[in-house]
User: Fold Exonuclease domain-containing protein from Mytilus galloprovincialis.
Amino acid sequence: MSKLDSSNPNESFNNTVRSKAPKDKHYSESGSLAHRLSAAVHEELGLSPGIATTVTAAIRDKDVNRKRTVAKTKEFKLQRLKLKSQRSSETRSHEIREGDTYCKSDSEEPDLTVIPGPSEDNCEHIEKVVVFYDLETTGLSRQSSITQISAVCEEQEFNRYATPTQEISEDACRVTGLKFNTATNELLYNDEPVSHKHPQQVLLDFIQFLMSLCASDKHIVLAAHNNRRFDSIILFNQLKFYKLWNHFSRYIVGFCDTLPFFKMLYPEFENYKQEYIAQKLLNEAYSAHNALDDCRMLMSLVKKTEKIDVLLSDYFYSSHQVTFQGVQPNKESLEHLLRNKVLSRTIFKKLEDSTLTYNHLKISYHRDGFDGLFYLLMEKTGSGKARISNNRRVIQKIADFFF
Assistant:
């Protein structure tokens, strides 16, 4: 190899080997390693490369020179800038749609709403799954604490008791049969102790139950009796208090109220308490004001009408309509933007055909103002076209509306 009395030849040989088999490439398990070392030895010994090596080297050198020449052209540089801009736009669009991925523990409720991407716009009709739910509370106030939450969806059932954070009123105690002994930390249902958890954990378990019912082609709608005036407001207030509303809203699209639904179907009824309707339609009596029994009965009653499509179309309200004060009129809709000439009919039709809603536009604006709307609406589809529009004047009108 080389004499050991001088390190210069050794260093020269090491450099040659390193050039043939660089350490940043994994050649140790490659069959070419032996050939690379042989090439380094031959080069150090001054042996001329063979014909095949010379031809291959000439071809590769020619290819490298061609690429260098192309890289210097104006067209190539413009294309490189265009691709860089596209990658940057795609990243910004994903960030706008994704929402918060990190926040401090003492900050406001994180924005976890994920806005659907363009790939979901061409999905088939998305089915709505009705989940019948009911709450028992410490009182009739909208600020009452939840003591029981139950839900039923076909054969799937959910039932949890929550530790009351407020004193259970006498009226609520008489109606629900629930009592709480603060001295022993026991929750009693009809004088029998039942297992109970912290309200936050109960709400998390409920969200987990809804997640188990979710699928890519299904949207969940929560239905309850007197939902609009009571249950959905209580649920909203409690979820907001524990900073879980945004997380919860990822899995439901809205609510249905069965009280006006039954009033429309059976105007001749004397009253519309659930136990009265059960007696009239099914000729059954049941344990009213136990949340789980209420859910089971409500599902049976709605199925009996065979008009669940009417319930979903005429007595549905979106989750973003629910507030601390109650359910607000649906002014926050794409139709509202069309009536106020914020959207042209063409843009309105594109938004209708996509999976984007009024709430998604509002969220994107709150996340990053005009840029949030711009990167959401101009995101490229599979065909390379803008999802809705890349016209800045069109997007500016929407941004001005939300300002």
